[in-house]
Design goal:
This protein is an alpha/beta fold. The chain is built from eight helices and seven strands; from the N terminus they run βαβαβαβαβαβααβα. The relative contact order is 0.15. The structure holds nicotinamide-adenine-dinucleotide.
Amino acid sequence: MSASERLHGQVAIVSGGASGIGLAVVDRFLAEGACVGVLDRQGGALGDLQAAWPERLVVVGGDVRDGAAHEAVLEATSQRFGAVDTYVANAGIHDMWTRLEDIPLDQLPGAFEELFAVDVLGYLLGARVMAGALRAAHGSMIFTASSSSRYAGGGGPLYVAAKHAVVGLVRQLAHELAPDVRVNAIAPGATSTGLSGLSDGEVGRGSLLDRPGLMDRVAETVPLGFVAEPGDHASLYVLLASADEAPFMTGTVLPSDGGLDVRRSGRHHRAQRVAGTIGAGGA
Ligand SMILES: NC(=O)c1ccc[n+]([C@@H]2O[C@H](COP(=O)([O-])OP(=O)(O)OC[C@H]3O[C@@H](n4cnc5c(N)ncnc54)[C@H](O)[C@@H]3O)[C@@H](O)[C@H]2O)c1
């Protein structure tokens, strides 16, 4: 074991681990000595990931809206590697900043159902399935929240409300699962990924990649002056996963957002000007 293997011998499951922030977490957990199970809907990317890490990774293709998919990744991971210590709930979609008044009334229920089913129900189903195993292992859950868990403007009302709901899940589950399981979240700010929009109806379709120059404009609203790469958040997930490094942390939401909380005292003139056109700092 190398001195830097902070998760040596641990087993983790990551949803949405085929790309973006989830993939960066998978890569870092593997580098820190963990074995990892990944649940994602992107079959091709999962195959590439499995080929790159044949020994310490298992992948399961499925939809986080399906409880059986979470059961399948738990079974595959524990059969291969033993007891599961950490569950990272991360798979998510965005509403592409669709404002309430731009959502046709007849499409609002469907858009709500799709976004909340992935971003909130998906986390709940995963937590429900993993809870018993994590209690037995005295492990931890880590949810990917967002700067939209705290601020307006990083999405439309569907995304911002869903990410606020994630904070409620963290608090309630930290309460219900104590003292056996620690439950925390990382709240990334704007991060350069291909985060997808909705796909079931006409509302909020596309991805962050469809908006050229978006990340440059968002960077203007961030006190540190740049948009994160997915790997910039990864060591915080390691911190929360480690019972040695964060034994007394539960119910917390750690921001990793370039300092949005101090925006008014920093680069606020530019931030206010840009936020007026594109919202407040990423997804
Ligand atoms: N990119 C940002 O600026 C940003 C900021 C804050 C929070 N987040 C959050 O980070 C998380 C990861 O997003 P990302 O930016 O890395 O985007 P991403 O699209 O690269 O990653 C999301 C992953 O989730 C998977 N996924 C989506 N819906 C799924 C479903 N129904 N079933 C199974 N897998 C599904 C996708 O295939 C993808 O691999 C999300 O929860 C997102 O809300 C992103």
